[in-house]
Amino acid sequence: MKMSKTLLTTGLLLTATAAFAQTEKPLSCKTLRHSKLVAVDEEDEHRFVLIRGKKHIEYFGDKKRYIKSNIKWTSDCSFKATMTECTVPNFPLKVGAVMLVQFDEYKRGVWHGKVTIGDESVPIEYVNVEEKKKDNK
């Protein structure tokens, strides 16, 4: 009798653990396809990234200095951006440069990921200010 209670309890614990583990939702990045992103460490909201479907524009301080790119979404949470125009003086990349942007976590209102250009990657953290505006309504 004790053995059957132990097996039953163990079975229930394993079932509950498996059910809990399956309730974790996969990351969805659909809101990023139409977004205004501000870097977490950026104090000036005048420097931001706009994503509008297949277009990417990063503004630097004012709307006169910017980088424009065409986007090809490679998955729900990643895209390749090919630079088509740049008005930022002395910018190290040239028109035609390709960057891979990948978001892998959304935690406490912050999108975490990385940008890869060539063989170099840097971590990124952004807040989608358009998402915040929707939440506040």
Describe the structure.
The chain is an alpha+beta fold and 137 residues long. 21% of the residues lie in helices and 49% in strands. The protein is built from 2 helices and 8 strands, in the order H-E-E-E-E-E-E-E-E-H. An 8-stranded antiparallel beta barrel has the order 1-2-3-4-5-6-7-8. A hairpin with a 2-residue loop joins strand 2 and strand 3 (55-60). The longest helix has 21 residues, at 2-22. It is globular. Residues 3-23 have low confidence and may be disordered.
Supply database-style keywords.
single chain; 137 residues; alpha+beta; 8-stranded antiparallel β-barrel; 2 helices; disordered N terminus
Kindly summarize this structure in a few lines.
The chain has about 140 residues and is an alpha+beta fold.
Gyration radius, in Å: 21 Å
Going by helix content, strand content and strand pairing, the class is alpha+beta
Mean pLDDT: 82
Share in β-strands? over 45%
- What would you call the quaternary organization? single chain
> What separation lies between the terminal Cα atoms?
58 Å
| H and E string | HEEEEEEEEH
Summed up, the helix count is 2
Shape designation: globular
Low-confidence stretches: 3-23
User: Sheet with the most strands?
Assistant: 8 strands, antiparallel, barrel
Find the count of extended strands (DSSP E, 2+ residues): 8
Layout: helices, strands, pairs:
Elements: H1 2-22, E1 34-39, E2 48-52, E3 55-60, E4 62-75, E5 78-86, E6 98-107, E7 110-117, E8 120-128, H2 129-136
Antiparallel strand pairs: 1-2, 1-8, 2-3, 3-4, 4-5, 5-6, 6-7, 7-8
